# Entry
Amino acid sequence: MISNVLSELLSFLPVAVAREILQISDNYRDFEKRLSEIRIRADRICTLTLDMRPVTMRVFVSAQELHDCVKAFCKGSVYAYSESLAEGFITTDSGFRVGVAGRALRDEKRIYGVTDIKSISIRIPHSVAGAGDAIVSAWREERGGILVYSPPGVGKTTALRDAAIQLSSGKSPLRVVIVDSRGEFPESLIDKGCTVDVLTGYPKAVGIETATRTLSPDVIICDEIGNTEEAIAILGAQSTGVSLIASAHAASLSELLSRRAVKILSLNGVFRAYIGVSRSDGVYAYTTDRHISIGGNLCSSNL
# Structure
């Protein structure tokens, strides 16, 4: 039996793909908890990601079927979503992020759209109680910024989402603002009793500045710190002392700290702890390092 949310998602997909997914789901216990991605390719093999491993589907989708699928995700108007498509994704109202691969439309200064889309990757959001325990523990000890890292698809966003719920609920809830640039923190996955405010669609630096200036947060949460320009803008917005809990792609702490954007923020004291996330058979594990001096000594403690 599948949830209403997954049923809604399947209604956007080509009929043969939706039918195949339902058949595969019959062979897996807790199918939805184990499903993290649906990848559809025009005239090529389509796959699911279950337990972080690819599972091949026995269907093929035509270019027209894929185009119709993308159009459905765009509510019938691909043009209306051209700005997010230019950044490589669409986000649905239910919080599904749809990555797109195709031909970039560009001028001398920028990519302004995507055409001839050949494949899409649909990320499945999850709400996992306890996934953010290490983040919450580190924040309560440090009362400062936390940076969460892992390779793509391991569960950083899930951990951030649970941390937001924990920090904003209970007997002494904090004022938590989520800067949701890509629409990956849907209201349906956040408990109604949480003191959370969500800024959806804001660029990270603008969202952080807006949250700090107008919403008086105790903690700001945002996903996936990107380039150097973004880091500099975030640094400017962080001058008020509000704690930032964020994430970044990296397979290891050394790889994380070698990234220029992270280095800029770290050298300026934005983060007091760095939490690596791993996952095996649905179980989360964490490595926490604190009080890092870049280029100097490293004092770490593992959870």
In short: The CA atoms of residues 52 and 239 lie 39 Å apart. The two ends are 36 Å apart (CA to CA). The longest strand covers residues 111-123.
